[in-house]
Design brief:
The complex is a heterodimer of chains A (395) and B (288). With 395 residues, chain A is α/β, with parallel strands linked by helices. Chain A contains 14 helices and 18 strands. Chain B has 288 residues and is mainly α. The chains are: A alpha/beta (395), B mainly alpha (288). Chains A and B meet through strand 9, helix 7, helix 8 and helix 9 of A and helix 1, helix 9, helix 10 and helix 11 of B.
Chain lengths: 395, 288
């Protein structure tokens, strides 16, 4: 066909007409729910972010398969938009800004305190609902009514773990070691208060993030002669080196890590469970047969194994709660209404169990999901079964 | 007193490791005029080469260390010869090229080995204890190897024709070239020597600390700090500064704490730059 101005106008009119005809059919298919994921997807902490992204994608696929999300009676397609926050405040803020530009109203993540600190103002400005993590003392608050916590911080779980560790190892004094930034100090100071409330003398030691050789810090700790050492939120690689160097320095007492999962890597870097000797840590999810069913479902849906990190399960429960609240509220745009629905939902997951909303005492707002969790233990160099703990209440 | 001796031992151990790293960094700057942002990458690569040789090929650790040093030497040679050499006098271009190489190395290792630290431990364990202080045997072995490495570099640079040629090129490339020295041959060799040193240190140190794709970042920062303190391009300055940094780091961390210790180190460097901007042994800004 010869390209003339008349033909071009006709072609343009045809395209315009076809768009106009196709629009009602797209609306008939129902609204679309975009779940934004903001997490660290590169660098040393990438495994955490991949667990978060995998969980959001799993919940979206599960909802689409079972038609779980309906708006005004019509099925709603759920999709995931994931952006790498690079584990930084500015990365998370930029990610939230990009998601806002794409019309995303719900964010699953981020993971760390610095990211959450950077993301919250941007999310608030764009009325986005956030189901995030981060153990900072100001992670939640009445000034952030649309920000929820996927699981409790140390204010929720430190006390029951310390009670178990005290009973098991007879701890009388402890030195807490963590990086000297918000990701370290906020957790170690809350842990320290929990130790003190349990009658254990606690002192805090901080190190510059990026330290590779902990021999001087270990010497300082040894000079304090503590009965136990708690590595708090020190990254697993750092924690592994410290355990090894503490044992080389002759430290015989128990070592804890009240900061998150990471036992496998700590044990590997330290040189095995024999070097850990007596070790206790926080396991965010009690992985039993029911929880394993999530992994089976993931394999059915995606044809691959689920992301390795156990935080995956915690993110699945958090994302499911958000999806349930959206369905209950019947909107994919009004986040205030969804937040109201979420607060009113009973904390329950078909695989992980039942729990409570907590956070009122510590954060001034009851927006922290609390499910049953576990305490990991190595005693005399032998890995023990995870001790189940009821969901934290009342804080 | 025991505490001071124990802390001093830690400082010497840190200083020897830092010196081996900083020597390579300062060699490259002194001779080629290049700030090698990939230095930490060669350290990590040395660690992963040794780890792979031990884990996947069943090579004894000592041989794996040699293989790692040779591997990083070869990569350094090829990189300088075929990539860096074309733009050797363009400081911005060499900076971008070495930074790009580092990003490629760390991202490649992340893809190949994952973000977590693998199980890679030193073949010797045990701790020597006496009168209130202790020395892990692995640290002692690494200290000895580092000291031998430092002395070897000194012998090579100050007591061989090759070393004299390198120093001549560092002093005045135009005159040295007019005298018959060949930068096309010597520059890649010098670069390879430096990257081999970084690889050797990585293969030695990562089993006693930890191995992960990102552990090169602090290595680069420490090398930079030492070389600035010692005087850019000065081999003697880098060695002395490495031991000063090791001692300051050890004593300040033990007696002031981890946070204040790091602050003390940077305050020291700041004072040095104010009082003596060219560093401890630096003479002038390099005119390459």
């Amino acid at each position: 066909m010869e390209i003339t101005r008349r033909n071009l106008l006709l072609a343009g009119a045809a395209i315009g007409a076809s768009s106009a005809v196709s629009r009602p059919s797209a609306l008939a298919a129902g609204a679309e729910l975009k779940l934004g994921v903001v997490g660290v997807l590169s660098g040393p902490a990438a495994q955490w972010g991949l667990a978060l992204k995998g969980a959001a994608e799993f919940v979206a696929a599960e909802a689409n398969r079972d038609g779980l999300v309906k708006i005004d009676g019509a099925p709603c397609q759920v999709s995931v938009v994931a952006i790498d926050s690079k584990y930084t405040a500015e990365g998370a803020a930029a990610a939230a800004n990009t998601l806002a530009g794409q019309g995303v109203k719900f964010i699953i993540g981020p993971i760390g305190s610095p990211e959450l600190t950077g993301l919250k103002p941007m999310a608030k400005r764009n009325s986005m609902l956030v189901m995030g993590n981060g153990y900072a003392k100001d992670a939640l608050g009445p000034q952030w009514p649309l920000v929820f916590h996927v699981g409790p911080g140390p204010s929720g779980w430190a006390d029951p773990i310390i009670k178990i560790a005290k009973q098991k190892f007879g701890i009388k004094s402890v030195v807490l070691v963590a990086p000297n930034d918000q990701g370290g100090t906020d957790i170690a100071s809350v842990d320290a208060d929990a130790y003190k409330k349990n009658g254990i003398a606690a002192t805090e030691e901080y190190y510059q993030r990026g330290t590779t050789n902990f021999a001087p810090i270990v010497t300082r700790i040894m000079n304090a002669k503590p009965a136990a050492v708690d590595l708090a939120s020190s990254p697993p690689g750092d924690a592994g080196i410290m355990v090894k160097q503490l044992r080389q320095a002759g430290f015989e007492g128990p070592i804890g890590r009240l900061g998150g999962p990471g036992y496998s890597e700590i044990s590997r870097v330290a040189g095995g469970d024999a070097v850990l000797k007596d070790f206790y840590w926080y396991e965010p999810v009690l992985v039993d047969e029911k929880v394993h069913l999530i992994a089976d479902e993931y394999k059915k849906l995606f044809g691959t194994e689920r992301p390795e990190n156990n935080l995956f399960f915690q993110w699945v429960s958090g994302a499911r709660m958000v999806v349930k609240a959206i369905t209950k509220a019947g909107t994919v745009t009004d986040t205030e209404k969804v937040a109201q629905a979420l607060r009113a939902l009973p904390v329950n997951d078909p695989n992980i169990g039942s729990g409570h909303w907590i956070g009122q005492d510590f954060f001034g707002i009851n927006q922290e999901l609390s499910f049953p969790f576990g305490v990991g233990l190595v005693t005399n160099g032998q890995l023990q079964p995870v001790v189940p703990v009821e969901a934290a209440t009342g804080k | 007193m025991e505490g001071i001796v124990a802390t001093g031992l830690i400082g010497v151990s840190l200083g020897a490791q830092y010196a081996l790293l900083a020597l390579g960094f300062t060699l490259i700057f002194g001779i080629l005029g290049v700030v090698n942002f990939a230095h930490g990458g060669f350290y990590v690569l040395g660690g992963y080469l040794a780890y792979s040789a031990v884990t996947y090929l069943g090579v004894p650790y000592a041989l794996a260390v040699i293989a790692a040093a040779l591997g990083t030497t070869a990569l350094g040679y090829l990189f300088e010869r075929f990539v860096l050499d074309r733009l050797i006098d363009d400081h911005l271009a060499t900076l971008m090229l070495t930074l790009g190489l580092y990003l490629m190395m760390s991202s490649g290792l992340l893809v190949l080995f994952g973000p977590q630290s693998p199980a890679f431990s030193f073949p010797l364990s045990g701790v020597l204890r006496a009168h209130g202080f202790y020395v892990p045997i692995e640290n002692l072995v690494v200290l000895v190897v580092c000291l031998v490495g430092i002395l070897s570099i000194y012998a090579l640079i100050y007591h061989t024709d090759f070393g004299r040629a390198l120093r001549a090129l560092a002093d005045d490339r135009a005159v040295a070239t007019a005298q018959g020295l060949r930068p096309k041959l010597l520059f890649p060799t010098a670069f390879a020597l430096a990257t081999g040193l970084a690889g050797l240190t990585g293969a030695l140190v990562t089993p006693i600390l930890s191995l992960a794709p990102h552990v090169g970042d602090p290595v680069l920062a420490t090398s930079f700090l030492i070389v600035i303190l010692g005087g850019l391009g000065s081999i003697g300055g880098a060695t002395v500064a490495a031991f000063i940094v090791g001692m300051v780091e050890a004593f300040s961390a033990v007696y002031l704490g981890g946070s204040k210790g790091a602050l003390a180190l940077f305050v020291l460097v700041l004072i040095m730059l104010v009082v003596r901007p060219s560093g401890l042994f630096g003479h002038r800004v390099r005119g390459a």
